[in-house]
Each structure stands twice: as C-alpha cells, then as structure tokens.
Amino acid sequence: MNILLIGSGGREHALAWKLKQSPLCDSLFIAPGNAGTALCGTNLPVGITDFEALAKACKEHRIDMVLVGPEEPLVKGVTDFLTGVPGLENLKVIGPSKNASQLEGSKAFAKEFMTRHGIPTAAYAEFNADNYLEGVNYIKSHKLPIVLNADGLAAGKGVLICQHPIEAMSEFDLMLHRAKFGEAGKKVVIEEFLHGIELSVFVLTDGEDYVLLPEAKDYKRVGVGDTGLNTGGMGAVSPLPFADEAFIQKVRSRVIEPTIAGLKKDQLDYKGFIFFGLMNDNGDPKVIEYNCRMGDPETEVVIPRVKNDLVELLLATSGKKLKTVKLEIDERAAATVVAVSGGYPGDYQKGKVISGLEENLLDDTMVFLAGAKHEGDQVVTNGGRVFTVTSFGTNIDEAVEQSNYVMEQLFFEDMYFRSDIGYEFRSETN
Ligand code: AMP
Ligand code: GLY
Question: What residue's CA is closest to ligand 1, atom 16?
C-alpha cells in the first residue's frame, strides 16, 4: 500500500524509518519531510496545513493511508477534511477527528472532558475577559505555585508556572487584555500545581480498544540538570524504572480506559495515538495534558522499542481490530539525545554543514534527522532541533553513554546537546 506521512521532525523520521521496514509498505511519501525522511521515501513539497494540496497528493500518488505526525493539522481538522474529499472516502487516516483533537487543541475542553469522565487531574477554573475579576480573586486566594494555561495551541509556550500572585495576575492580564498568546490565550485555564515525577504514556486506539506503547520521559529544559528555558525536548529515555506494573495498572484503569470510554460516550471519533502527559503523584497518576499525537523526541525511543510491523498496527487501528493485536516490545532500554543549533530555543542560525553522519555509526544506534535538509551533496541545519541519536543498551546508563559517544563523532558549527539525559536513572559513576 501507499502511505503518506505528514510532518517534518525527528518524530517523522523515526516513523518513516519504521513504516519503511514493513513489507506492506509499497511507496512512502512524506509531506514535507526532511533530509532523514528522504532516505526512507519521497518528500513532497506540501505544507502540513495545506489541506487542498494534501488531498491532491493523496489522489496523485494513490495513497491508501495517511499518518499524521504533528498536532496542528489534526486540531485544524485534517482527518475530517481528507475523508470528506470526493474520491478519498476510503482513505484510511490515522489521527483523530477535529472534534476529538480538541483534547489537545483546547485546555478547557480537555479539563471539562476529564471532569465529566472522572479522570484524575489538577483542580482548575476557566476564565475569559468577561469574568476577569473573578479570575483575579481566584489567583489571590489560590495556593502557590499556580499554573496558568492558554486555552489553545501556543507552540508549547502557553503554560506559565507562577511562584507569586503578582506575577500570575500580570500574566493573566497580558493573556486576556494584551493577547499575549493571541487567540490561544483568550480563554485561560488556571490550575493547581501538581507535584511528583512526570512521564509520558502512549496508546494507539481504534476508538474501542487500545494497545499500550512503552512509556518514556522527555527532558524539556535546555540546560544540564533541567535548567534554563523550555524547549520542544532535548532527549528522552524508555522504559522508566518507577513505572512498575502496579503504577501502569493504575494508569490503565484510572486514565486510559476512562478516556477511551469517554471518547466513545461523547461520540468523538478517535483512531490514532493518544499521548498522556502524566504526573506520578506518590504512586497515583494524574493527567497534566492530553496530546492527540506521538511526542517528539519520545517517538525516537518508543517506536524503535516496538517490534511489531507498524503498518499492520495502523491497519488494525483503522479497521477497529486492535483487540486482536499483541504488542511485542524490545526489553532493552532506549535513549535519545537531541543535537540543537546554538542559541535554541532562542535565535539560532541555519545552513551549517553537518558532518560525520555516514561514518562512526555503531550497531544499535540510529540517527534521526529533524531540522536538517539536503543542499547539493551536503546535509545542512534547517531548524532548532537538528537531529537525535537513539541507542539501545541493557540499561539507561549504557544507552545514554552510547548516544553521547556517537554525538561526539557528529559535528556542525555551534552544535549543542545535553549530556545528562536520563540522569535520575543513571549510576553515580557516570
Ligand atoms: P504542557 O505544555 O501542558 O506540556 O506543559 C508544559 C510543562 O509544564 C509540563 O510538562 C509540566 O512540566 C508543567 N506543568 C503544566 N501543568 C502543570 C501542573 N498543573 N502542575 C505541574 N506542572 C505542570
Ligand atoms: N516532547 C513533548 C511533545 O512532543 O509534546
């Protein structure tokens, strides 16, 4: 079958790499892709939210299945759009409907959904310009720290953790009266700060049943020791020693299963990945956020650990046959370390030549390209997160060490990576 993958990050290179391994995959196209996806299939110069052009590409290349990587097209309704185009009625699209994608697209929607279905999450209230003063009073009487969330998508920047009420009131004012996050911040969800250890749990669901993918932890801060600004993610590890059977069983029964039952009850069409951003609060899972897609860089450790044929899994998802599927997971630990352009997540330069990609690769190590493109014979940087190195090991220590070793063999001007990925799970000697 012919498959179209939408997106251009390291996540999409990892997905493309896995899709291409399937004997069921005849031709793979990626819109718009990057220098890494170009090694697995054909990149198409089509933007992720150019729905008309995506539909045209589906017809032209006789696409049977579309897999949507990032959230933006999902929240804007790519799934409903494509299957509504005459001639594409039978297209299999892996990614939730526009309504169901509001689980990620609107914080208020997600909070109301969790409240309605009894899913554990932080206590909250929602405000807009009309009940601004109530919001100010809510902040004044709330214990600290207090969390302000822009309702809509704000490229990962819409969450503010405030340590002081004055700071919270000022940010609240900026969001509601000065459009700090534009449309996304016209509604604000204010919530309790959750304590504990964060982790990411992923499932693939057909709307009835689900398979549980390996859990992961990502490292969002740019600096060693979790310091500095938030980024899209500087690395990830899987599995997590603290996510034992008992904890995962609670995640299944208190979070995953009520979520899938809730989607069904609310008639929200969902065939695709659900990413649960969780807090482990003394052994009890609480949902920080839903994402309607896989994580990046979590995909780069989760997907390599899945032994099943990904196309088979996606076909079972589309055909509502996940009940019959048994996942096979590689028991080894996986770690991924992200190389970023100097200055990221602030300003950075592009166009730097990347060297060492073809040499020095070890067994069990994969380089997934992200903000990288071909320029003549060379691969040059084209974004903040440039590539990620995934390695396997018998434990997290070994996997991270191997990724760091490979990282040292790769180079572009002003390249930076965090050498302490997985630090909480590593032995003192490293
Ligand atoms: P998000 O954009 O929702 O992924 O949030 C970004 C990060 O902010 C999360 O990964 C958490 O580290 C933190 N965060 C968001 N909401 C809360 C909360 N209610 N309590 C504690 N931390 C939070
Ligand atoms: N790594 C976090 C995300 O993909 O949202």
Answer: 288
Name the closest-CA residue to atom 5, ligand 2: 295
Ligand nearest to the CA of 161: 1
pLDDT grade for 177, boundaries at 50, 70 and 90:
confident
Share of the chain above pLDDT 70, in %: 98
Cβ contacts of 377 within 8 Å, gap of 6 or more: none
CB neighbourhood size of 301 (10 A): 29
The alpha carbon of 8 and the centre of ligand 2 are apart by a number of angstroms equal to 14
Is the CB of 110 within 6 Å of ligand 1? no
pTM score: 0.95
Extract the tokens encoding 37.
Answer: 């996806």
Among 217, 277, 276, 215, CA closest to 248: 215
* Distance from C-alpha of 270 to C-alpha of 210, rounded to nearest angstrom: 11
Nearest alpha-carbon partner for 176 in 143, 129, 237, 116: 129
* Side chain identity, residue 379: V
Per-residue model confidence as pLDDT tens digits over 370-423: 999 999 999 999 999 999 999 999 999 999 999 999 999 999 999 999 999 999
Place of tokens 């939210």: 49
Q: Whose CA is nearest to atom 2 of ligand 2?
A: 295
Mutate to test the pocket of ligand 1, among 159, 163, 276 (most ligand atoms within 8 A of CB): 159
| Torsion sign over Cα 98, 101, 102, 106 | negative
- Ligand closest to CA 290: 1
**Interval 101-120: pLDDT, tens:** 999 999 999 999 999 999 99
